[in-house]
C-alpha cells in the first residue's frame, strides 16, 4: 500500500515536501490554515495570528540563483534579488508546474497530532483537522511539520527598565508594514539583522532621526560583491567553505574581518562582532541604491 504523509503548512517547506513525496511514490496530503500558499512570503496588510508577517518592501537577501530550487530555476527576467511578491509568484509557478495544488487542503487547521494506539507496531499517526467548523480524523504513516518558526515575536520588555512609562510608541518588527509610521519621529531600531537595517533605512527617509542599537555587532557588506556578482555567489561557494573549514579559526576570523572591512572600517562605527568567528552578516543594500 502507498504510504500516506501528512504535511502541515503550504509555505516553501510544505510545497517542496509535497513534491519530494510525489517523487518517492508517496501520497501527500497538505493542510494549510489560510486560503493560499506562500507562508512567510505572502504579504498581507494585517498581522495574522500564528502566521509569519513581513513588510511591504522586503527583498530577499540571497540572490535568485542561490535561492532557486535545483529543479526549477527563477525566470530570467526576474531581478537578482527578488521582492517578496516575486518570490510568491515563483512559488505559484513551482506549484503549478509540478501539480502540487491538488494535494493541498486550504482553510484547514490541524487541531492535534498524536501517535496511534498501535504506533509501536505501525508507526502511524492520528491527525484531527478542522475545516468550516467541522472536525475530521485521519490516519497517516508519517507527518511533516512545515510551519516555520517566525510567527512568535521576541519582545523582552523586562530588559528595558522604564518602558512602562515611555511616552512614545514601541512595537516588534513583526508589526511593521510601511515607513509612514515613522514620519517626523525620532526612531531607535534595536537589532541590526537584515530586517532591522531594512527598516532603519526606510525610516531614515521620513523620520526626523534614526539610530540603530546592536548588542553583538555585525559584518556589514553590500549585496553586490566582487565584479558585480551577488555576495552569496562569491562568499558561499563550496570552495570558500572548504577553505574556511580547513584553516585554523584565528586565520579564518582574520580573513573574514579583513575582507568585510575593505568596504569600510567597522571599528570606526563600533560594529565589530563580539564573536568574530560567527559569520553574522548584514546586507546594507539600501544604502547603495540597489
From TrEMBL:
Parts of the chain that traverse the membrane: none
Could you tell me what this protein is called?
Flavin-containing monooxygenase
Q: Which domain of life is it from?
A: Eukaryota
Q: Which gene encodes it?
A: FMO1
What's the family? Belongs to the FMO family.
Per the entry, what this protein does is: Broad spectrum monooxygenase that catalyzes the oxygenation of a wide variety of nitrogen- and sulfur-containing compounds including xenobiotics. Catalyzes the S-oxygenation of hypotaurine to produce taurine, an organic osmolyte involved in cell volume regulation as well as a variety of cytoprotective and developmental processes.
An annotated GO cellular component: endoplasmic reticulum membrane
Keywords tagged on the record:
Endoplasmic reticulum, FAD, Flavoprotein, Membrane, Monooxygenase, NADP, Oxidoreductase, Transmembrane, Transmembrane helix
State its cofactor. Answer: FAD
Q: How does it sit in the bilayer?
A: Single-pass membrane protein
Compartments reported by the entry: Endoplasmic reticulum membrane
What's its EC?
1.-.-.-
Please list the reactions this protein catalyses.
hypotaurine + NADH + O2 + H(+) = taurine + NAD(+) + H2O; trimethylamine + NADPH + O2 = trimethylamine N-oxide + NADP(+) + H2O; N,N-dimethylaniline + NADPH + O2 + H(+) = N,N-dimethylaniline N-oxide + NADP(+) + H2O; hypotaurine + NADPH + O2 + H(+) = taurine + NADP(+) + H2O
> Gene3D superfamilies of this UniProt entry?
FAD/NAD(P)-binding domain
Origin organism lineage = Eukaryota, Metazoa, Chordata, Craniata, Vertebrata
For this UniProt entry, the molecular function terms from Gene Ontology, in alphabetical order, are: flavin adenine dinucleotide binding; N,N-dimethylaniline monooxygenase activity; NADP binding; trimethylamine monooxygenase activity
Class in the EC hierarchy, top level = oxidoreductase
Amino acid at each position: 500500500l502507498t504510504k500516506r504523509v501528512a504535511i502541515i503548512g503550504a509555505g516553501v517547506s510544505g510545497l517542496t515536501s509535497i513534491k519530494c513525496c510525489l517523487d518517492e511514490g508517496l501520497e501527500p496530503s497538505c493542510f494549510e490554515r489560510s486560503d493560499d500558499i506562500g507562508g512567510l512570503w505572502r504579504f498581507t496588510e494585517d498581522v495574522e495570528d500564528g502566521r509569519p508577517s513581513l513588510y511591504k518592501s522586503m527583498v530577499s537577501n540571497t540572490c535568485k540563483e542561490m535561492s532557486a530550487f535545483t529543479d526549477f530555476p527563477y525566470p530570467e527576467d526576474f531581478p537578482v534579488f527578488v521582492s517578496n511578491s516575486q518570490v510568491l509568484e515563483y512559488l505559484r509557478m513551482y506549484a503549478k508546474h509540478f501539480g502540487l495544488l491538488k494535494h493541498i487542503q486550504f482553510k484547514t487547521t490541524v487541531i492535534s497530532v498524536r501517535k496511534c494506539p498501535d504506533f509501536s507496531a505501525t508507526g502511524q499517526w492520528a491527525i484531527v483537522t478542522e475545516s468550516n467548523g467541522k472536525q475530521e480524523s485521519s490516519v497517516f504513516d508519517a507527518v511533516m511539520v512545515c510551519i516555520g518558526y517566525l510567527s512568535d515575536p521576541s519582545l523582552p520588555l523586562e530588559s528595558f527598565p522604564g518602558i512602562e512609562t515611555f511616552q512614545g510608541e514601541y512595537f516588534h518588527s513583526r508589526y511593521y508594514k510601511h515607513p509612514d509610521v515613522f514620519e517626523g519621529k525620532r526612531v531607535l531600531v534595536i537589532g541590526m539583522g537584515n530586517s532591522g537595517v531594512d527598516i532603519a533605512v526606510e525610516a531614515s527617509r521620513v523620520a526626523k532621526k534614526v539610530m540603530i542599537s546592536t548588542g553583538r555587532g555585525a559584518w556589514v557588506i553590500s549585496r553586490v560583491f566582487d565584479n558585480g556578482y551577488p555576495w552569496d555567489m562569491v562568499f558561499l561557494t563550496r570552495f570558500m567553505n572548504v577553505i574556511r573549514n580547513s584553516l585554523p579559526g584565528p586565520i579564518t576570523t582574520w580573513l573574514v574581518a579583513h575582507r568585510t572591512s575593505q568596504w569600510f572600517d567597522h571599528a570606526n562605527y563600533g560594529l565589530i562582532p563580539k564573536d568574530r568567528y560567527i559569520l553574522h552578516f548584514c546586507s546594507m543594500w539600501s544604502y547603495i541604491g540597489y
